[in-house]
From TrEMBL:
Coiled coil: none annotated. Signal peptide: none annotated. Residues 84-96 have a biased composition (Low complexity). It comes from Cryobacterium mannosilyticum. It comes from the Bacteria. This is J domain-containing protein. PANTHER family: DNAJ DOMAIN (PROKARYOTIC HEAT SHOCK PROTEIN)-RELATED, J DOMAIN-CONTAINING PROTEIN. The chain crosses the membrane at residues 158-179, 191-216. Residues 97-111 have a biased composition (Basic and acidic residues).
Length: 448
């Protein structure tokens, strides 16, 4: 395969002024030509993929065009060539100005890290400074009337059936005895009084007997047992909610006493040190999460151009949130920025905070990872990274957790970029698979 130039446009065999549609057609043509199965080579195929990675989107193409205009001599030496490489060696010279230094290509980054959490903190902080609202007490659970009426109607129905049956049996017995004694020949008037008395006593006995029978049936009813179990769960939930309410009420009173009387300076600058210092812990946690996301974003700034990053995004109809989604050579990596101050350790493949196991972290992430599989429909995430501040981890280098369906790792922020180069136990995907994955993620994510 030959090309008409040494730039990425030359690799694809087009001029720099072609339209996006023509550029895509040229890429597909060169992709088929350079593939090893159609007479090309792996090196040629890789060079074509690198060219498309630099020109595939309008933003990347514009950035590449700017680098082309910065100096053709530098780009002709830095960009890949198709075919035999030159054996001529050159002594590199140091650029004399900052404009002449080669630009470092970094990953595609989309979204605003921590943006939604900062807005949440700001809104809650302003509401607390303007009009502090005490916590609301929980509402007790009341069983539905339909459930109670179901048992009442069934009891009345059984009572009517037993009353009628016992009265009919008593009346039948009186008629049988009267027939045996020949009293029926004298007419019904001769036996109407005993007939009414026996039928009445029989009906009364049936009504009395229906009460214990109805209670026994109700106790053995599966619907009632399920209703009792559900009522006990609701009672336990209400008791826990009451305990949480009492704690929240005490915390609110403490926060209210710490609230300054002059709130105008804090309203003007809700992110200032004074505002953050007096913010209640329930509000400050949102700023902590935003800062953790921003620290992770700064660490991700050092990954190479083979990666694409989406910050602070949502997936699916349930608006499942993710701090960062990263598409790289090993597929889709889910990154969560953790706010714990430490000490956090990994012992026996499990996460421990202050010496105690914290299984709830992974339990809360599992349904969110399921949303990735359901929304993207491309095999889901390849791995998950929990990123802590270096000061929070006893060992800040990459550590793997056990007991997870997918590879899950804990790493310090300073080692994040190096860890993404090659996660252990995670296979690399083909270039066309990664391009498809990158396009799917870009199409289906929403920024929070």
């Amino acid at each position: 395969m030959t090309t008409s130039g040494t730039t990425h446009y030359g690799v694809l065999g087009v001029a720099a002024s072609v339209s996006a549609h023509e550029l895509k057609r040229a890429y597909r043509r060169m992709q088929r030509t350079s593939h090893p199965d159609t007479g090309g080579s792996a090196e040629q195929f890789r060079i074509v993929q690198d060219a498309w990675a630099a020109l595939g989107t309008p933003d990347r193409r514009a950035a590449y065009d700017r680098t082309l205009s910065a100096g053709s001599a530098h780009h002709s030496a830095a960009e890949p060539r198709v075919g035999p490489t030159s054996q001529t060696s050159r002594t590199p010279t140091r650029p004399s100005t900052a404009e002449e230094r080669p630009r470092v290509r970094r990953a595609d980054s989309h979204g605003h890290p921590g943006g939604s959490f900062r807005l949440k903190y700001r809104d809650l902080m302003i509401a607390w400074l303007v009009n502090p609202t005490p916590p609301s007490p929980p509402v007790p659970w009341v069983p539905a009337r339909k459930a109670r009426g179901r048992f009442f109607r069934r009891g009345l129905r059984l009572g009517a059936q037993m009353t009628t049956s016992f009265a009919a049996v008593g009346a039948g017995l009186v008629l049988f005895l009267a027939w045996r004694q020949g009293l029926l020949a004298e007419g019904i008037a001769a036996i109407w009084m005993p007939l009414l008395l026996v039928a009445g006593f029989g009906g009364f006995a049936g009504a009395i007997c229906s009460v214990p029978v109805s209670l026994l049936r109700m106790r053995r009813d599966s619907y009632r047992r399920e209703l009792i179990r559900y009522a006990k769960e609701k009672a336990a939930t209400f008791a826990a909610a009451q305990a949480d309410f009492r704690r929240a009420q005490r915390a609110f009173e403490i926060d209210l006493r710490a609230r300054p009387s002059n709130t105008a300076p804090l309203l003007a600058a809700p992110y200032s040190e004074d505002a953050v210092r007096v913010a209640p812990p329930s509000i400050r946690v949102w700023l902590d999460r935003a800062l953790a996301q921003e620290d992770t974003a700064r660490a991700l700034a050092f990954v190479g151009p083979r990666f694409s990053i989406w910050h602070d995004v949502e997936l699916g109809a349930g608006h499942t949130r993710f701090d960062q989604l990263v598409v790289g050579p090993q597929g889709l990596i889910v990154i969560e920025s953790m706010t714990e101050a430490g000490p956090v350790t990994v012992e026996h493949d499990s996460l421990r905070h202050g010496g105690r196991a914290v299984p709830d972290v992974l339990d809360s992430l599992r349904p969110r990872l399921a949303a990735v599989d359901k929304t993207l429909g491309i095999g889901g995430a390849s791995a998950m990274l929990l990123v802590y501040a270096d000061s929070a981890l006893l060992h800040s280098r990459l550590q793997q957790l056990g007991g997870c369906a997918m590879p899950t790792f804990v790493v310090g922020a300073s080692h994040l970029a190096a860890a993404l180069v090659g996660l252990p136990g995670v296979d690399e995907g083909a270039t066309w698979q990664l391009d498809r994955l990158r396009a799917t993620v870009a199409e289906r994510v929403r920024f929070a």
